[in-house]
Structure formats: structure tokens, C-alpha cells
């Protein structure tokens, strides 16, 4: 049964992209990294937003 479950999960998986953005903190001025996993079509929109 485990093999059947794994095969089902693999065939129904979507293509995702991990995007990492560097954001400057207003309080300390230090840079932090923000990570997000999303569909490839949404990456440019997410990176351009603050």
C-alpha cells in the first residue's frame, strides 16, 4: 500500500518554485531573507512587492 500512495502523490504533484528575497529591516537596518514556495507564474509578482 505504501508504494501505491507514493505513486499517487508523485503523479498529482504540481510544479513549484522556491523564491528567496532579501528584505531590509526598518528598525535595525539589517537584511533578512524571506523564503516562499509558490507557483512559477507568481514569482515575479512576489519579488516586486515589498
Sum this structure up briefly:
The protein has 2 helices and 2 strands, in the order H-E-E-H.
Explain the overall architecture.
It is a single chain. Strands 1-2 form a two-stranded antiparallel sheet. The protein has 50 residues and is an alpha+beta fold. The protein has two helices and two strands. A hairpin with a 6-residue loop joins strand 1 (17-24) and strand 2 (31-38). The protein starts with a helix and ends with a helix. Mean pLDDT is 78; it is low at 1-11.
Q: How much helix is in the residues?
A: 25-40%
What would the average pLDDT be, to the nearest integer?
Answer: 78
Q: How far from one another are the termini?
A: 45 Å
Number of strands: 2
Amino acid at each position: 500500500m505504501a508504494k501505491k500512495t507514493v505513486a499517487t502523490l508523485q503523479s498529482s504533484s504540481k510544479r513549484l518554485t522556491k523564491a528567496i528575497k532579501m528584505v531590509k529591516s526598518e528598525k535595525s537596518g539589517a537584511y533578512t531573507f524571506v523564503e516562499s514556495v509558490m507557483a512559477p507564474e507568481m514569482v515575479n509578482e512576489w519579488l516586486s512587492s515589498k
